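QA checklist item 7 of 12: single-chain prediction sanity check.
[x] sequence parsed
[x] length recorded as 306
[x] structure emitted
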Amino acid sequence: MPGPLPAPTQPDVYPGSGGTLDAFSTYIAPNQGDAWAFLKSVLDHYGLSSLDAQAQGWVEQNLSNAQVAQSIRQTPAWKQVFKPILDRQQMGLPTITEDDVLNLRRQYAQIDLAHGAPQDFNGTQDYDAFITNDMSANEYNDRWNLAEQQVALEPPGVQYELASQFGATPGHMASYFLDPTKTLNTLQRNVTAAQIGATGLRAGYGQVDQTTLQNLAGQGITASQATQGFGTLANEAQLFNALPGENQNANITQAEQIGAQFNNQAAAQRRIAQRSAERAAAFTGGGTFGTNANTARTGAGVSNAP
């Protein structure tokens, strides 16, 4: 049976480390019967299993601990996996080890999990950027806490719409405020859509389905435009459903309402105008429901042309 792995005769360091103890030196032990198996487990631990064939050759050549460690750090694989070490050296920041990199990545991931971040919110590349920029795990956690405070300041209607329509958890909402660029094509649009939906509720128009809200957000409809548009639709609400004596299949659908107000759909605008004219004629002298047929529609995406 092989004896215990010998301690290195001198601390192994990597270039620019300022004499930091080599993270590999306690693992690499050439000239031992189980040296290759042990080195392989080390490479696997550090995410460097792609170096297995090269490393086996180093062991067979009886390279010293320092030589093996130095060889590992000269490979493109090591430079890619532990890029933050090199980046920090170039920036003149304090030197860190491979173990520091692994530990920080793990801590960042645990913080994301604890705060309910979307599954694809961050990855190794993001965590490495934090390491390079010297962001501690405590600072990252503080940033999450600030983002959650920002969510709490959002109007309840927006939070309700995000949760009910889009299934957004508090963690999803906080991740948007933490880094909007990460979720530009998903959560950011959902936030905008939720804000539009909340204006519909506040204006007294009612709830709008998820797909329609996302389409409006994609069109670039702002909260101000939504407030104006849904206010107009709320004032016209009595026009949209048939009255007794009218064709009960002639309801004006929500899609038509939205299309008329926000998408300048001429056919839908004519239906509403016609319904308004019919109601005005039926109740002449007793007031009218909704708008007059000759009244121009205003709002986002609406032309005032006859």
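[x] summary fact logged: Residues 236-306 form one domain.
[ ] second reviewer sign-off
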